[in-house]
Each structure stands twice: as C-alpha cells, then as structure tokens.
Design goal:
The complex is a heterodimer of chains A (about 180) and B (about 150). Chain A is elongated and about 80 Å long. In chain A, about 35% of the residues are buried. Chain A has a single domain, classed as Glutaredoxin (3-Layer(aba) Sandwich), CATH 3.40.30.10. With about 180 residues, chain A is α/β, with parallel strands linked by helices. In chain B, α2 crosses α3. In chain B, about 65% of the residues lie in helices and about 0% in strands. Chain B has two domains: about 70 residues, Helicase, Ruva Protein, domain 3 (Orthogonal Bundle), CATH 1.10.8; about 50 residues. The chains are: A alpha/beta (about 180), B mainly alpha (about 150). Chains A and B meet through α4 of A and α3 and α4 of B.
Chain lengths: ~180, ~150
Amino acid sequence: MNGFGRFIPLLIVVVLVGVFLSVMMSDRNPKEIKSVMIGKPVPTFEIPNLFDGQSALTDARLRSGKPVIVNFFASWCLPCRAEHENLVTLASGYTVDVIGIAYKDDPEASRDFLDELGNPYAAAGVDRDGRLAIDWGVSGVPETFLIDGEGVIRYRHWGPIVGDSLRVQLLPQLEELQ
Amino acid sequence: MLRWFGSILIVVTLSITVFAVAVDDKPLKDPVKEAMARALMKEIRCLVCQNQSIEDSNADLARDLRQIVRERISLGDSPDNVRAYLVDRYGDWVLLEPPVNTSTYLLWGSPFLLLLLVAYGVMRSRREQAGPAPLSSEEQEKLNAILREGDGK
C-alpha cells in the first residue's frame, strides 16, 4: 500500500461515523414519509358537519385569507387523545383556527370525545369512510396540516403533536405564515 | 415432539395464507378487470405496514386503497392512471418498485457503481501481484556497477 491508500480505511470509518452520528442526532422518524401534498392546494371537498344543524364543511373554509390548521382525528385513536391538550392550547392561545376532521369515526363518539377533552375546533367535519383522508395523503390519525390563507398546504405534522413538537415544529411554521 | 412442532408450523403458515386471501372486499364481476386490479394491488405499498403490498395487508387503509383501485379500474382507468392517482397523494413511496427519476438515479445506479468499484479494486490488486516493474537500463547499470564492486573485494 502506498502513502494515500493506507488512509482509505480510516477515511471510510470517519465518514461512516459521521453519517451515523448525524442520523442519530436528528429527530428524524424513519417511519415518517415526506408528504407530497406540501405546496399543493387543499383537495376540494364537502363533508357533513360534525355538529348537527350546521352547514357542510367545504374546502372554502380553508381559504379564509388567514392560515388555518387541519387536524385529522378519531375518538378511537389513542395518540389523538395524547395530543389533544396541545390542540386546545393551540386554539386558545394562538390566533389560528383549528379545523377538525373526524376520520372513520362514529359522529356520536367524536362528539363525546370532544365533550370529554374539550373542543379546540373552530369547525369540524365527518369523514366517515376515510376517503377525504386519502385525498390528503393521510396514512393514519392523527395528522395535522398547516394551510396558508390561499388554501395551499404548507406543512404536515405526521403523528401526534406531543412533547416539544408543538413548540419546536408546528408553531415556528405557523409564525412564519402569519 | 419435532413432528408435533412441524404440524403446528404448517397450520400456522397455512392460516397466514388464508388470512391474506380472506379479505372482506368484493372482487369485480369482470374477471379481466379484476385480474388487472389484483396485479396493480401487488405493486402498491401498504402505507401502514410499509413493506407489504396492499394486496397482502389486512390494514384498514390497505382495504380502502384496494377498494379505490377496484373502483377506478372498473370505471375504465388504466393502471397508469391509478398509479398516478396514488402517487399524487402519497408520493413515489406508495409504489413498491421506485420509478427511475432524478431522486432515484443513485438508487438504481448503485449496483453499477459498486461493480465499477469492485472492478477497480480487482485491477489494482492484480497489478500489485505482478510484482515491481522491471529495472530501467540506467538502474540495471547501477546494479551491475555495485555487483562488480562487490566482486572486486
């Protein structure tokens, strides 16, 4: 082995250690797949309102000129229960409307869920067969989207908003839009 | 004991296959379209279980996606249209076989890169085995002079 060749194994080890460290340090979730919906306008939809006697929820509600947050949830979903407190904080403490979409849930059960834990939603719709969620590229609940005033999806939070993800991830994105 | 264990294994394996087939969705009436839809389902990733196709998966979302595939095929969509519909929502990730595009050149090219690297390594080690290069005429003369000097002693 000549002069440079001798250092190749060392170089490989250093590069690998670098790669492993950077992946370990980042809070990347390997199960999370980047949403292709970001940068696209919200899908057109019209779904029944979760609260009887109110008009249907449509995509027009998401083009109000102000950023809104759309949260897919279900009463049967435990992680949704875990993040709910953060949604209540978000709705009461920040000037943003949170829109709930009940995914594959009995409306009665969704309403009970909100009665029990508090209702952070400025409006809520029912996606009984989960078709709307598929149009949004949702793979499970909870998932939360940040929509700008023109109805374009700007950010998606995959999984529950727990721990410091509200402060570190969602809020900075929201502030950037406001 | 071993035989007993073996038969349990067989029963378990069989029941897994039965599970995979016994999905509660309705096949299309047109056998050609059903076959087309089934072939397509094998290419679509179940996004909840991730390394299964929606054809193999029992997940709720996989069932919904199978239903969508059947619906679209029965309405006359081509498999390409259905693929595009799903990629629009879930990205290339939803396809079990990644398409060749700018973000996957490295992925598809890596076997060839590896091959090149190995070829390079083999060539190098061969050159080393061939031993040092023969002496140049100048060096040979020098060597002769040294040898002669040694003889003179």
